Amino acid sequence: MDNVSPEASDTLEVLLIDGSGLIITLSPNAAKYLGRPQHELQGRSLSAVFRNGIDPVFTWLDALANSGSPPPPLLLNLEHPQPELASIHVEAVLYAIEVGIRAKGETVAGLAIRPRTGTVVESELLSAQRQILELVA
User: Fold this and answer.
1) Which of 24, 67, 79, 103 is deepest in the core (most CB within 10 A)?
2) CA–CA dist 77, 129 (Å, integer)
């Protein structure tokens, strides 16, 4: 796996999204990291929360809806603008939960985020997948 380091630094925090890129729910720590209450982020499009680097998510979600098997996780470098503060630079991993076309508001993927460090740790990927499954359950 590219950019995988054996050591962990910051933990990955999870957002669950639907096929159109709307945030369905997110972990409390993800909301804290993004500097907004959970209720303000739920129902917002990823493109409204992140800028620079978010476009590949929508291509990936289209592939997820139109294929019989999930695409591989997608590694992203994103930017989250904050009012009156410098932007937060985020690295993220997008994971498939469901394949095929789903109703709006139905969770299809999980987006795990953390401050950009330049490496993704394999144990973090597994931990993020567990968090995603726990949020879906």
Assistant:
1) 24
2) 19
Contact predicate 1/108, CB 8 Å: no
d(CA 96, CA 77): 18
Q: Over the chain, what HEC string results?
A: CCCEECCCCCCCEEEEEECCCEEEEECHHHHHHHCCCHHHHCCCEHHHHCECCCHHHHHHHHHHHCCCCCCCCEEEEEEEEECCEEEEEEEEEEEECCCCCCCCCCEEEEEEEEECCCCEEHHHHHHHHHHHHHHHC
Q: Rounded distance, CA 57 to CA 35, Å? A: 22
* pLDDT-derived band at 121, boundaries 50, 70, 90: low
Q: What is the pLDDT of residues 102-112, one digit of tens each?
A: 878 788 999 98
